[in-house]
Design brief:
The structure holds two protein chains of two kinds. By secondary structure, chain A is mostly helical. Chain A has one domain: MetI-like fold (Orthogonal Bundle), CATH 1.10.3720. Chain A is about 70% helix and about 0% strand. Chain A is flat. By secondary structure, chain B is of the alpha+beta class. Chain B folds into two domains: about 230 residues, Rossmann fold (3-Layer(aba) Sandwich), CATH 3.40.50.300; about 120 residues, Nucleic acid-binding proteins (OB fold (Dihydrolipoamide Acetyltransferase, E2P)), CATH 2.40.50. Chain B is built from nine helices and 20 strands. The mean pLDDT of chain B is about 90. Classes of the chains: A mainly alpha, B alpha+beta. At the A-B interface, α8, α9 and α12 of A face β6 and α2 of B.
Chain lengths: ~325, ~375
């Protein structure tokens, strides 16, 4: 039995004159559509690549020297004890801010997840802190924390607690900025998790009530596994964001007192811009980038898994 | 195990929808009762009030003599198999079934034993490690049943438990559920719109419509002595034929004449006496398709009609005939055949006819 030839026709065998080419605009269209994305990519990649390149030179604004020095800036950074302290502050800030926002946000979301007028009103007011620029919010908090005219200390005193020196002393500086971060972004965490809770089918929770499960039993075995994807969304946004937090700390103390709040971001800014030693500050920014890159990769992967698991796929 | 008693139960939803009106019903300890009715009749609302997922607007609910109105669902010791399964998506089948046992802090070894046993009865042993999302509707429904069965509740409630199973599984589960009830003698309420399910499993049937309980009794009672037109029309397959008639006196005897004049019918003397007492202008004659016969010969007391359609279904035939302006369905023996537009004469078994009030629909 003869097999039919189903291979593609030999294009080279077709005479040039018979090949009909689509009009120019049609051929260009895919490239034109991709062009804006390409421009944006260049806009992001160019400074990034330049940043990496400058970090391999001794470049300073006062002495513009672009000789290649390899990883010398990185070596110096790692040898500096300030770097390890900076790592600690950066992580401490990110973990405590994200952790508190998760716990508070989840509590608020659980409380608001019911049909009542109060819940509806509160849901709207929750968004207010997010509508204020972080710098403005911080300046307002700074005034409230002011030792002589601020309102916070009298409030503490009225319930029998001693006055605090807030961000003015190293002991409470981190607490003070984390407090502002929590105030600003707990509503975000609460709203994401509330949206999650609202998206759940009612059936399983009714079944749990009939099955005689206590609040905590249902929470542990049903609510939490189903809410994990939403919790991870909050973590992805808030942890990434607080790792690179700049505005609240800068507006509050510019990294002080001393170097108490010198996170990667603050150190990079101070060294590169204020001290004008660009190449020495860049490694901090790049290490921060690498940390955020890998942590976010890992979190997003975990998020995908959690989503499948919450739906019941193993 | 306990007696379940509903006294003057009302359910009014927000917006004034009255789902259940003045429901009085007692389910004996160990009894299997089916709550039967068309969709929207209030049967599921009733069920949800019993388990406590819906508040009771008015009236009292007693389980084992204890008033339950204000108790949380978890304190009522009822088990419910949901129609929508309501399985726990992140948990495995085993964990789903074990959930209520673990919630009550029952020992792990006993949990395992009880779950395995229930899984065997419901034939889901091989999927205990899977999660609900990987399973089909029939399997999910059996898990939902297993979750309710694994407990030892005072009252066992099922909301359309067989609706998503295929015909073979359904027949199998009907037998299993009935056998299980016979073994455990648990007070059981089955909510269904399928009379076949109700008949097959339940000892008594309660028929509801538009939030009102119509009739409670054994299926035979309800089938043979329906209290009103709704029950008569809802129970029985194919449904009962209704023909509007008016009582007429003929030579001292009370008979019926069709409102459109298409036929007259003599009544057995007992029925005639009952009808005479009521002194009605309008009645409805109800006859089940199985209580009629169709012939091609005219005869005394036969109703003249014309064949509309005829379906031969193997074991029987179904003949739709037009009598005056009405369509009448008759179940015919398999050897009879009819052609459309052929004239037929319909006979009614006089001892099997039902009479209903022309306006209220109540049985006479």
């Amino acid at each position: 039995m003869a097999t039919r030839d189903i291979s593609a026709p030999d294009l080279a065998a077709i005479p040039e004159s018979e090949i009909v080419r689509p009009p120019l605009m049609v051929r260009l269209r895919p490239y034109l559509i991709a062009l804006p994305a390409l421009l944006v990519l260049i806009g992001i990649l160019y400074p990034f690549v330049m940043g990496v390149a400058y970090s391999l030179t001794p470049y300073a604004f006062t002495r513009p020297n672009t000789d290649f020095v390899g990883l010398r800036n990185y070596m110096r950074m790692v040898e500096d004890s300030d770097f390890w302290y900076s790592t600690f502050v950066t992580l401490a800030y990110a973990f405590s801010a994200t952790g508190v926002q998760l716990a508070l946000g989840l509590t608020v979301a659980m409380l608001l997840n019911r049909e009542s007028r109060v819940a509806k009103i509160l849901q709207v007011t929750l968004i207010f802190p997010m509508m204020i620029a972080p710098v403005i919010a911080t300046l307002i908090w700074k005034m409230m924390m002011q030792p002589s005219v601020g309102i916070l200390n009298p409030m503490l005193n009225s319930i029998g607690l001693p006055s605090l020196e807030w961000a003015a002393v190293p002991e409470t500086a981190l607490f003070s900025v984390v407090l502002i971060d929590v105030w600003m972004f707990t509503p975000f965490a609460a709203l994401i998790m509330l949206a999650g809770l609202r998206s759940f089918p009612q059936g399983p929770f009714e079944a749990a009530r009939v099955d005689g499960a206590s609040f905590w039993f249902t929470f542990r075995n049903l609510t939490l596994p189903m809410l994990t994807p939403f919790i991870l969304i909050v973590i992805i946004f808030r942890f990434m964001d607080s790792l690179k937090m700049f505005d609240i700390i800068f507006a509050m103390t510019e990294g002080g007192p001393g170097n108490t709040l010198m996170t990667y971001q603050l150190t990079a800014y101070r060294t590169s811009i204020q001290f004008q030693r660009l190449a020495q500050g860049l490694p901090y920014a790049i290490v921060l980038y690498i940390v955020i890159y890998f942590v976010s990769q890992w979190l997003v992967k975990w998020w995908g898994q959690a989503q499948r698991r919450a739906a019941g796929y193993s | 195990m306990a007696e379940l008693r509903l006294e003057h139960i009302y359910k009014t939803y927000k917006g004034g929808v009255e789902a259940v009106k003045d429901l009085n019903l007692t389910i004996q300890d160990g009894e299997f009762l089916a709550l039967l009715g068309p969709s929207g009749c209030g049967k599921t609302s009733t069920l949800r009030m019993i388990v406590g997922l819906e508040s009771i607007t008015r009236g009292d609910l007693f389980i084992g003599g204890r008033r339950m109105n204000e108790l949380e669902p978890s304190d009522r010791n009822t088990a419910l198999a949901f129609e929508s399964y309501a399985l726990y998506p992140p948990l495995t089948v085993f964990e789903n079934i074990a959930f209520c046992l673990r919630a009550r802090k029952i020992e792990p070894s006993q949990v395992k034993q009880r779950v395995t046993e229930v899984a065997r009865i419901l034939d889901i042993e091989d999927i205990l490690g899977k999660r609900p999302v990987e399973l089909g509707g029939g399997q999910k429904q059996r898990i939902s049943l297993a979750r309710a069965l694994v407990r030892d509740p005072d009252v066992f409630l099922m909301d359309e438990p067989l609706s998503h199973l295929d015909a073979a599984q359904r027949a199998h589960m009907r037998v299993e559920l009935k056998r299980l009830h016979a073994q455990t003698r648990r007070t059981t309420v089955l909510v269904t719109h399928d009379q076949l399910e109700a008949v097959a499993m339940a000892e008594r049937v309660a028929v509801m419509n538009l939030g009102v309980l119509q009739q409670v009794g054994t299926f035979d009672e309800i089938y043979n002595h329906p209290v009103n037109e709704f029950v008569a029309g809802f129970i029985g397959e194919p449904p009962m034929n209704f023909l509007p008639c008016e009582p007429v006196s003929e030579g001292g005897e009370l008979g019926l004449r069709a409102t459109d004049g298409s036929f007259t019918l003599r009544l057995p003397s007992q029925r005639a006496q009952q009808l005479a007492k009521q002194n009605l202008k309008q009645v409805k004659l109800g006859v089940r398709p199985v209580d009629m016969l169709a012939t091609s010969q005219a005869g005394d007391d036969r109703i003249a009609g014309r064949v509309y359609t005829y379906e031969s279904l193997g074991e029987e035939g179904q003949l739709a005939a037009r009598v005056g302006g009405h369509e009448v369905l008759i179940v015919t023996p398999p050897e009879d055949h009819f052609e459309p537009e052929q004239p037929v004469w319909l006979g009614v078994r006089p001892d099997r006819l039902h009479l209903f009030h022309g306006e209220t629909g109540a049985a006479i």
